[in-house]
Structures are given as C-alpha cells and as structure tokens.
C-alpha cells in the first residue's frame, strides 16, 4: 500500500504501462497460441490414432469372422460329420482310411489358415474325442466340464468364438491359444459328433500389426482380463497394468494420457466386436509433442527476442522522453535555490526542445525582471537619498547665512571670519564629490565645525563631551547621519535651558556593529513625540531632517536590523542610540 501511495516517477509509470500493455499481452497470446496448438495436435493425433485403431479393429474382426466361418462350415458339413462318426466306430484296420478322408475334407476349409491351425477336436455324444493334428493334453472329462463347453451345447449350430483359452495340446509351449467351437444340432441325426472345437495360434493377428508402419508407437490386443492376444514387436508387457486396464474397460473407446508409467503415453483404445477385446495404441508423449516442443522453442525464442528488442527500444525511448524531464526537474531545483543560470538544452524531441526554449525564456524574463527591479530599487534609493539629503543642504545653508548676517551686525570681523570658515567646511562636506559614505573621523570633524557654529548661535549654553573609541574612527558611515541628531539635541534640548547644558557623543564597536550615542540633559521628548517617531511622522527640525527620516535612511541602506533607538537620559534629557554596520572600505559604497 505504501508503494501505491507514494507518487511514481514518469519513467517508472511508462515502464509499467509498457510491460502491462505490451509484454504481458505478448506472453499471454503466445501462451494461448501454444496451448491451442498443443490441444489441436493432441486432438488430431488422437483422431488419427482412432482411425488407425478402427482399421486394425476391422482387420481383427475379419480374422475372427474367418475363424467363425471355417468353424461353422465344418460344424454343419454332413460329409465331415459322417466321416468323423464313421471314424469313431471304425476298427483299427479301416481307421486309417477314414482319417485320410477326414483330413482331405477338412483341407477344403482350412487351406487358407493352415499356418494358424493347431488342432481340431471332435467330441462325440457317447464319449470319446478325435484330435486332428494334435492331441489333447487335458482330460476329456475336464474339458466337457468347462463353462464354454456347456454354453456351446446350449446354442447348437451357433459358433462360439472363445477367444484365448489355456492351451490343451501336447507339445505346445505357448500358454494360451485361440479357440472357437460349434455344437451340431439334432438335425444331423446320423452324426455322433457333439462338439467341434478349433484351436489356432495368434499368427493372423500378429500379421495385422506387422502391416502397420514401424514407429515408436505400439499396438496390443488385450482381453478384458488383461490377457495379451497379439502385440507389435516394440510393445512392452509392463504397459498392460491394472490401472490402465481399468481405465480402458471403463468406456467403449476413447483416449487418455497415462502419466503413471515410466514415460508419459497417449493411449487410445477401441473394442474388437463383441469379443470383449480391446485394441490399444500407445504413443510416447514425447514423440507426440516433439513437433510441439520445436514449435514451442521457436515461439519462445521469437517471443523472447521480440520482448527483448521491444524492451531495449522502449528503454531508450523512455530514457529519451524522461531525460529532458529529469534535467528540467534538476534545473528547476537549482532555480529554487536561486541559480537563474540553470538553462537546459534545446535539442531532442520537438516538444521537449520547445519546453527547453520556454524554460530558458522564462529564466531570461525572470532575470530581466529582477534586474529591472534592482535598477528600480537602486534608482528609488538614490532618489530617496537625494531627496533626504536635499532637505538638509538648502535649509541649513539659508539658516546659517541668516545667522552670519545677524552676527555681522553685532560682532567683530574675526567672529564673522571664523563662523564663515566653519560654514564653508560644513557646506563643502555636504556637497563634496564622491559617494554616499564618509570616514567616521571626517564626520567628527564636520560635527566639530557644526558645533562651533551652533555655540556661536546659542552663546555657549552647552558643552560637548567626546567618548570616541579609536577603532571606530577608521570605519565608514553614511554622510550627515549625526548632524540632524545633534541638531535636534541642541535646538530642542538646550533651547529652553537657563543653566549650562551638556551633550555626550559616544562611539563604540560592539557585537560586530558600530554604536553611536548622542545624549543630552535637555528637556527630553514627550510621549507624543516618541509615538510620532515610531510612526515615522516626526516633525522637521531646523535642518529639515527628523529622527524618523534618519532612521528610515539607515534602514533603507542597511536593513531593518539597524537604525535609531530613543530613550530617556537619566536624570533628564534624551539619549539617541544609532546602530549601523561596520564598513571597512570606501568601496563598500557599491554594495549600498
């Protein structure tokens, strides 16, 4: 279930579909064709075997009919019966003449079967028996007591084909011989013959099998009891076993495959008239299926070859289809990781090439959009910075010049010269060439010029304490970050004080950042001013630059982890903490 729940790859799905829709049908169709061919082969062989058996059966019945005909002809021939009667009553002197006469009379009927005939026995009504050619080895009384003898007497003038009977002749080594008998009816009143019995060998039936073409199949005629009447030369006696005999006797004719023997055999059988015999044809199953096995090997080889070729072709086909998809998946993973140069080839199948071109075009468009976005952001930052910086320079310059004008009226020339000199340095720093960064030590010098101007403006109402870490002086920061904050402390913090004010400017490096603190002991900020700062709506100061604007400018260039923090300075006043990253080289401006 977990295998089904997990999504399959495209290649695995294609392989499964190809196997299910092509390989399985080919195997199933090939198997069905072989099975149908095997069934038809078995059926055709069985039909031919039964046809052969019918022909053999006909020949066997002809031989039996010939025996019955000869037996009937002899049993109803008055001359033969009279001669046999006279022979029975003749003395020793005339007996030889009757024997010759009887032999001559019998030869008219037995000439065609002379090689088969073993003996003819004439049983007389008052006892005694005459044996033609060979004498009985069994006592006459025992013979007359046998079932066939009594059964024949009950059906006079009807030939009884007795089939195989135990041999009752002297000098015979065969245990069984063919027998037929007839009891002349009372119509023959002048005859003393009660029974005529023929005894023959099985040569005629053996000839039937010798006429069949020689192959590895075998024929045998068996009785219902399993006695072998005749058999072909390649027949094995062990094949007539009780299990096979029971199956043969279970139906009039038919076939079955005998798997109980050493070698599987196709057995067909058919009855021989009403004799109770069956003619059995045995065909080795290996011979029967030899052609099938050849066809099976050919079909198996052809099927395997077709499947192998198909799998090889399908493997390369699936690989050709899925390789671009796998490449596309890998490239998309790289794109997800930020690599926009992960392009794919545009060769191969037309659809895949189109997909590759579309993917590459998409990446180009993404890079173009990103570049446009970066350019827009850069232009936006420059515009914002220029706007923020422009808020500082003109207003500050105008206000300072106004102060110089007033001082010129009430002060001496030296003060005007010094203040003008400080203004020139400060303005020069604001409008100087170069980038947006300045060294922290240069920014300190600018602050000192600015403080000189502000001290003259406000009449030395405050003093400044510097706490600068020497390591911080070599670092870089954005221009004019500190002047607006310092201006805010002077203008708003010290404006209303009667006593001397104090401003502390501190710089230190801590936890990988530059911290600059400007603290005053002025009036401090109200909660409303704190709220406006947090919402970036702080009112403009003398320079036009509020805390919120400085904070926004820092975050615009360095990110939201940096900026201003406002807090109360105990016991009075305001403390502004500025956190900016450590910038070691002026060229880092390019990153901003």
Topology overview:
Layout lengths: L1 H4 L4 H67 L1 H12 L2 H19 L6 E8 L4 E4 L7 H5 L2 H8 L5 E7 L9 E7 L10 E8 L2 H8 L7 E5 L5 E4 L10 H8 L4 E5 L6 E8 L4 E8 H4 L1 H47 L13 H61 L2 H18 L6 E3 H19 L3 E7 L7 E3 L3 H12 L7 E10 L2 E8 L6 H8 L12 H12 L4 E6 L5 E8 L11
Parallel strand pairs: 12-14
Antiparallel strand pairs: 1-2, 1-5, 3-4, 4-5, 6-7, 6-10, 8-9, 9-10, 11-13, 14-15, 15-17, 16-17
Helix pairs in contact: 2-7, 2-10, 3-4, 11-12, 11-16, 12-13, 13-14
The chain-level mean pLDDT equals 79
Instruction: Please describe the biggest sheet, giving its number of strands, its sense, and whether it closes into a barrel.
Output: 5 strands, antiparallel
Counted by DSSP, the helix tally is 16
Strand content: 15-25%
Overall form: rod-shaped
InterPro entries: Bact_2-comp_sensor_kinase (IPR050640), HAMP_dom (IPR003660), HATPase_C_sf (IPR036890), HATPase_dom (IPR003594), His_kinase_dom (IPR005467), Sig_transdc_His_kin_internal (IPR010559)
Main location: membrane
EC number: 2.7.13.3
Membrane topology: Multi-pass membrane protein
